[in-house]
Amino acid sequence: MDQEITRWINAPAGSHAALDMAMIALTRYGVPLLVLLVVVQWWGRRDRLRLRHTCIAAGLSFLAGLGLNQIVLLFVHRVRPYDAGVSHLIIEHSADWSFPSDHATASFAIAAAFLLHGFKGRGSAFLVAALAVCLSRVYVGTHYATDILGGAATGIFAAILVRQLYRAGTRMDRLVTGLL
User: Fold this and answer.
1) Cα separations (Å) of 10 from 23, 96, 113, 136, 158?
2) Pseudo-torsion of CA 44, 47, 49, 50, nearest 10°?
3) Where is the Phosphatidic acid phosphatase type 2/haloperoxidase domain (predicted)?
4) Is the dihedral of CA 40, 34, 150, 99 positive or negative?
5) Which of 24, 41, 117, 124 has its CA at a distance of 20 to 30 angstroms from the CA of residue 30?
């Protein structure tokens, strides 16, 4: 089923120039743009300290999720779908294993952090962007659908972990959120 879903999403790749360009742009620039959007939130005017705390939590979730992925990669060596003949690759080859998707982890960690800290509007917007980035990763042929699910799970887990461990109002939090 995973291969069939991956093939279905990847099927139009290489056939529609405008769609290919959009998906390649999402794949290349989606996560950096999400990070930039988190950084811009730092200067929000409403509920400033809670928003800044959430920005720090999103960054920590991002890093923790990618760290968890590195541990998973020590044990899971899944071949990329284009190497297995499942997908048609329309971007450059990746040097690492397929599972879990770092793009999914990073984007879902950010979205989950904002949602878990009560920023429903911003969190929902980040979630829509995360879903678009994840779809692009399968479309361009570099991931299986379950690689995306695994990455999303590690991103969400990291955000939950950070939510539990990084508390608002601590001395360190007041120091960091008071910068700039």
Assistant:
1) 11, 20, 29, 9, 29
2) -110
3) 53-163
4) negative
5) 117
In a domain, 82, yes or no: yes
Whole-angstrom distance, CA of residue 174 vs CA of residue 151: 31
CA distance linking residue 39 with residue 100, whole number of Å: 25
pTM as predicted: 0.92
Cβ atoms of 134 and 110 within 8 Å: the answer is no
- DSSP 8-state assignment for residue 48: H
- Asked whether residue 180 is domain-assigned, the answer is no
8 Å CB contact between 138 and 156: no
Domain span holding position 120: 2-12+29-175
Domains in the chain: how many in total? 1
CB proximity list for 86: less than 8 A, separation 6 or greater: 3, 6, 7, 10, 144
How confident is the model over 44-90, as pLDDT tens digits? 888 888 999 999 999 999 999 999 999 999 999 999 999 999 999 99
Name the nearest CA neighbour of 90 among 3, 28, 1.
Answer: 28
60 found inside a domain: yes
